[in-house]
Each structure stands twice: as structure tokens, then as C-alpha cells.
Amino acid sequence: MSPTPILEVKNISKRFGDRGGAGLRDISFVLAPGETLAVAGASGSGKTTLARLIMRLAEPDKGSIHLAGQDITALSGERLRRRRSRFQMVFQDPLAAFNPRATVRDVLEDPLRLHGLANPGDYGATIGAALERVGLGTDLIDRPPRQLSGGQRQRVAIARAIMTKPELIVLDEPISALDVSVRAQILNLLLDLKEQTGVAYIFISHDLAVVRAFAERLIVLDEGRIVESGDTETVLKAPKTETTRALIEAVPRLIF
Amino acid sequence: MSKPYLHIAGLGVRYGAAVALEDISLEVGQGERLALIGESGSGKSTLAMAVAGLLPEGAKATGSVDFPTLGYKPRPGKDIGVLFQDPNGSLDPVMNVGDQIAEVAMIHQGIGWTAARVRAAELLGAVQIPRPLTRLNSYPHEFSGGQKQRIALAIALAGNPSLLIADEPTSALDTVVQRHIVNLLDRLVRDNGLTLIFVTHDIALASERTDKIGVLYRGRLVEFGPAADVLGAPRHPYTRALVDTHISLDTPRRKRLAEIDTAGLE
Fold first, then answer.
1. pLDDT in tens, A12-58
2. A212 shares contact with chain B (CB less than 8 Å)
3. How many CB atoms lie within 10 A of CB A216?
């Protein structure tokens, strides 16, 4: 028998996404430990709504979401809070995801304190180790995120996400706001962390070239439905739907 | 030889002590499409804004930016249309889009309000907003992100400019919407014989859509020439690295992706 999936999404539907987001219709999929699944689709396809549901930032109308075998849609309050350390999220724009008045130290101390992961006396050493793992020096620990470059900020966001040793990280367009020259570095960092820790990723993106480089499996969303899914390379080689073909066709080709 | 549309010689821009651009010289012909490529802080937007005459207060420019075929100093909004990355920053949230387009047409084409509203409907149609007449009285928030960028394009074109400057016009949009907008931009530029300056960080997009490429690195124009030459035989290590690390649909799959070694670029 295959091991318990890290994430199992069972028939979830949502009539409307919150904050004006797209709805979802009968979404089901399974993610194995250490696997990377890309969720691709155009704006309004429901990608972000799906991420918010998995993160329990919004409630589905129907269906359930299971994390390591436990139905997290049935959890609330303290039980949900305790569970939260096991799934984390990295957003497209880390600046919007950080308290603007916090320093890097504050940002990284929060998960330690909230989840009781270290003794206050050890915060400094734990934060230093996390920064090192994401390729940053401790010299920027007292700076606010807005004084960092886009790539450095995203590294801090990744450090915050791995702090709690999660089994799943939802990456919502983690490189699309970054300079081209640092995109590969961030993707490589995520690949390294996956190899070291066995974390599984949900990788949300509209750029199929990046999806192909990063994720072994792919689901394509259109108007809240899964219209295609499978091994990334197989889906891209022989797309079966107009949606996937349009996404492939939309990737700019380098010609000279 | 015919006169170029745009002639830049020895252009430098400083913000206080910070040098944003240094010794830029280039020429763009009438109807040519130029891509400006570079990372954040390379000076590509500063160069575009220097051409548009829209440098912020406090910027000190030296050298010259001339428009030989025009024969006069171009007026932003009339001779030069500008399209920015974030349409929310260009559109007035409390004015209907018909009035926003008509205002530009009226001011810069010297036509009356009724004619300007008619022109606004034509422009909305040209940028492929469905049922343009019925959408004149809609407000920006009633449109999607891609549609808002189309409306911003209609405003940029409302003065009948001869030059369109598009500063990362699709970077905030998804790839499918990006493709639609870029196709539209391409067609309108060709149909109207516009000269285009397209600021982007995407070399593939630049290679598909422009005739010439200029690469900026730390405020200097390190590469300038026909797109195929610049990308096919890059002279500067930064350009070389951009081409080598580009992630495309046919990049061979490897365990790790090729990175740009910024330390090795000096």
C-alpha cells in the first residue's frame, strides 16, 4: 500500500471565492509526501482560492481537505492552531505578507513563539540557523523587509515557512514578482530544501515553462474545475484541452 | 540617410548623488520597436521616462534627447503615449472610463466633448473591450486586470502619439492575458506606424516582439543592436547569462536550474 498522502483534497467546491476570488467546482487530488504538484491556470481560474482553502484561510462549501490523514476542514480553534505549524505558505509578494514595522528577526521569531518551537534563549541561534539555510547572513537580522531586495525578502519568507518544519508548503507564484536573475536561485533553494527535508510543495503558477522546470506533476484549472492533470512532461507534450494549449502557447519563445 | 525618430547622445541621469544612467547614446528609427532590458535598478525605466519627459522632480539629466523627425519638443500624452505596469495607477477610480479617454482626446486633438466621447468608444473597440459603447460609463473597478490595461492603452493612444512607451505593461498579468495584450499592442503599433519603446525583463518577449534590443546594466547601455544579434551573439556577460539561464518550454530538465552568477559579471 502507498504511504498516507500528505494532502488529500476530496470533492471540494466553493460557490464564490472570498474577496471576489474565483469559485471552485468539485476539486479532488492527492499529494504524496515530498512530491511537488503544480497548479496552473489563468487569472480567475481558482488557483488562489484553492490555496486559501488548503491553508484554511477560507472554508469550502462542500468537500474535505485531509492533511497527513487528518480532516483539517473539521478542525477549528486551538486544535487547528496547533496543526497549523505543519502546513505553511509563501506568497507572491513577501512585502505584503510581512508586518511592515517588523524586522527580519521579528518575522522569524513569530513562528517560534506561536508554536513554542524553541526556548526564548535559543531564538537567536535558531533564527541564525534558518537564515543560513536560505542563504542569508545574520547581518540583515535587524533590518525591516522593505530594506531588502526582492530575492532576499523571498528568502526570509521561505525561512519563516520552514521554521516550523512543515510537511507541506503552498507556494503561490513565489518567483513571478522577482527579477529574472534571481528566479533560478529561489527555485534552486526550494529544490534543495525539498531534498533535505522531504517537504511537499503545491506550486501555483501561470507560467508553464517554470512549472515544467520545477514540478513533476501538474493540474490545470479553468473556471474552478480541474480540466487536465498528470505528469507535467506528459501533459505538456500532449495537451488534451484548449485551456492547457492556451497556457502553453502563451509562454514567450526566445527566438534569435 | 534618413533622420532617426529618436536620437539620444551622452544621456546621464542622477538622483542626488546616485547615478541612475550614465553616458547613454542610441538611435531609434521611425516605426522601429526597441526593447529595453535589465533588472530592477538597471536604469531601464529611468531611460524610458527620460525619453517620455517624465523624469521625477529632483532628477538631474545631462546630455541630449532629440526627436529629429518631429522637429519640436514632444508633448507627453500627445506625441508620446505611456503605458505603465499597473493600470490602477494610471486610471482614475472615480471617473468613468469613457470620460478618461475622451478627456485626453479632447485636450490633445482639439475636438469637442461629443466627438471625444465618440473617439473614446472607437478606442475602446480598438483595444478589444467588448460592446464598447455600453462600457463608456463603466468605472475601472468593473473591469478585470487585463481589461484595465487595455483601457490604459486606449488612453495612451487617445492623443494620437507617434511614440508609445510601454513600461513592463504585462508583468503584473498572467501569461495568457499577457499574450493577448502583447498581440494587441503589436497590431496597434504596426497599424498606426508607431515607434515603440518596450521596457521588459523578459528576453523571450523582447525577442518575439521587437526589432532592436538595448540591455542596461547598472545604469549603462551595455548592449544595443538588432534583437537577433544581441541575443544570438551577446557581448556583455549579463546578456550572455540572461540567454543561458532563460527557462523555456524546451530547456532540458535537470535537477537544478542554471543560475546567473552575479559576482562573475563585473
1. 999 876 666 679 999 999 999 999 999 999 888 999 999 999 999 99
2. yes
3. 13
Q: Do B176 and A256 touch (CB under 8 A)?
A: no
- Is residue B254 predicted with pLDDT exceeding 80? no
Q: A193 and chain B: CB distance < 8 Å anywhere?
A: no
Q: Interface pTM (ipTM) of the complex?
A: 0.86
- Average of per-residue pLDDT values in chain B: 93
Mapped onto helix, strand or coil, the DSSP state of residue A216 is coil
Chain B residue with minimum CA distance to A207: B175
CB A12 within 8 A of CB A6: no
Give the ranges where A149-207 is alpha helix by DSSP (H): 150-162, 180-197
Q: Which residues of B touch A43 (CB under 8 A)?
A: 144-146, 173-174, 176-177
**Touching check for A96 and chain B: CB below 8 Å?**
no
Angular region, B187: left φ>0, alpha ψ -120 to 50, beta rest: alpha
Q: Which domains does chain B have, with CATH numbers?
A: 75-161 (3.40.50.300)
Whole-number Å distance between alpha carbons of A180 and B71:
38
Q: Which domains occur in chain A, in start order? A: 7-250 (3.40.50.300)
Contact A179 B207 (CB under 8 A): no
Cβ atoms A112, A163 nearer than 8 A:
yes
As given in the structure block, the three cell numbers for residue B259 are 543560475
DSSP string, B225-246: EEHHHHHHS--SHHHHHHHHH-
CB-based contact B202 A252, cutoff 8 Å: yes
Other Cβ atoms closer than 10 A to A116:
10
pLDDT at residue A180, as a whole number: 85
| pLDDT band at residue A141 under the 50/70/90 scheme | very high
Interface test mutation site (partner B, options A153, A247, A254, A255, max chain B beta carbons within 10 A)? A254
- Of A2-6, A121-125, A208-212, B242-246, the one with minimum mean pLDDT is A2-6
C-alpha cell at B20: 541612475
If residue B247 lies in a helix (H) or strand (E), which one and from where to where? none
Is residue A5 predicted with pLDDT exceeding 60?
Answer: yes
Q: Which residues of B91-115 are buried (b: 16+ CB within 10 A; e: fewer)?
A: beeeebbbbbbbbbbbebeeeeeee
How far is the C-alpha of B223 from the C-alpha of A106, rounded, in Å? 43
pLDDT band at B1 (very low <50, low <70, confident <90, very high): low
Residue type, B186: D
Tell me which chain A residues have a C-beta less than 8 angstroms from the C-beta of B179. 249-250
Whether residue A181 and residue B242 make contact (CB cut-off 8 A), yes or no, is: yes
Which pLDDT belongs to residue B116?
96
Among B203, B259, B260, the residue with its CB nearest the CB of A254 is B203
pLDDT at site B83: 96
